[in-house]
Amino acid sequence: MSTGSLSSQSVPVYAADQIRATDGANMGDVISFASELILDDVYELDFGAEPARLSLVAHDDAPFAIGNDTKIGTPGGTVHLDSTLTFMLPNGTTADALLLVEVDADGGVVQTYLLPFSAMSPKAEYRLVGIDRDSAHTKFAQVACVSFTRGTHITMASGAQRPVEELVVGDRILTRDDGVQTLRWIGTTTTRAVGEFAPIKITAGTLNNTADLLVSPDHRLFIYQRTDELGAGRAELLVKARHLVNGDTVRRSEGGFVDYFQLLFDSHQIIYAEGIAAESMLITSRTRPILPADLAQSLGSHVKGHSDLPHAGLDAPEGLLRRADAAAMLKKASGR
């Protein structure tokens, strides 16, 4: 299955053989899919284990495919979301994770992966206290959705700036490509601002933004290069916030909880947040489960009328952004 032309999401996962039960009924076994797990078993991460990035490509009404740019798994392979697991640590805190299963063409299990929602430590004991086979797609949708954080100012049709939490369905928003568009739905989620899922802070002025901008890690910003500083071969680019992290002007904002807001229009749009262009929510098989049932049904199984055109194919290659001055280069390229 070819995945090269489709948008992918890269998530940090551990392979099953990096996580083993050290106490309980499955002692000595690696973590497995839900039907083989037993509550109260204790798991530990192998010393020195590091997560690898699994690239997942969404297909409507189908399981996920593994992207060609993956660091683990088989490109083109099929991945199912198995379940949501909840672990309790010795200090009484809990941690959620998703269990993903890669299968071959005959449905046989190739590999099992754990996608933790917070950083895991090889020195900690993780007691399995919850197995939920129904919430995995919704949990993954919350991770996959591009989101603005509370306090982000969105440009209205009038040019006024309004905090995202004050928007209501029916508001008229200025878009880059289609003028004024009506806001169809607003989603809200609250999650721990830790590790890979903490928001990315782009400090004021870094990309000509008027104030600090905090967005979800895979939120894509639209950049128009007047000169091709990156060598991308085109003027228009979509750049994921996490690819710009440099520890200085662009960094993860960890600690506590973060309120995320998802903005949906009748089609994928580029809107303005803190004065710079950023994408709205795009409905795919990754993100549809977060929608209310009536809205998801009205959109249809094939998301009729909702597409990423004309933004398909604008993603900046990650390799071009692996440099500390990537944000500075993009600011320079867009300012000439």
Describe it.
By secondary structure, this protein is mostly beta strands. It contains three helices and 23 strands. The chain is globular.
Question: CA-to-CA gap between the ends?
Answer: 41 Å
The biggest beta sheet reads:
6 strands, antiparallel, barrel
Q: In what range is the share of β-strand residues?
A: 35-45%
Roughly what percent helix? under 10%
What is the count of β-strands? 23
- Helix run count: 3
> What Rg is obtained from the alpha carbons, in whole angstroms?
20 Å
So what's the overall shape? globular
Provide a short characterization of the protein structure.
The chain is mainly β and 336 residues long. The chain has helices at residues 136-144, 293-299, 326-335, and strands at 8-15, 19-23, 42-45, 52-57, 64-66, 78-88, 94-103, 109-116, 126-132, 148-149, 153-155, 161-163, 172-174, 180-182, 185-192, 200-202, 213-215, 220-224, 236-240, 250-252, 257-264, 270-273, 276-279.
Please give the structural blueprint.
Layout: E1 8-15, E2 19-23, E3 42-45, E4 52-57, E5 64-66, E6 78-88, E7 94-103, E8 109-116, E9 126-132, H1 136-144, E10 148-149, E11 153-155, E12 161-163, E13 172-174, E14 180-182, E15 185-192, E16 200-202, E17 213-215, E18 220-224, E19 236-240, E20 250-252, E21 257-264, E22 270-273, E23 276-279, H2 293-299, H3 326-335
Antiparallel strand pairs: 1-4, 1-8, 2-3, 3-9, 4-5, 5-6, 6-7, 6-9, 7-8, 10-21, 11-12, 13-14, 15-21, 16-17, 16-20, 18-19, 22-23
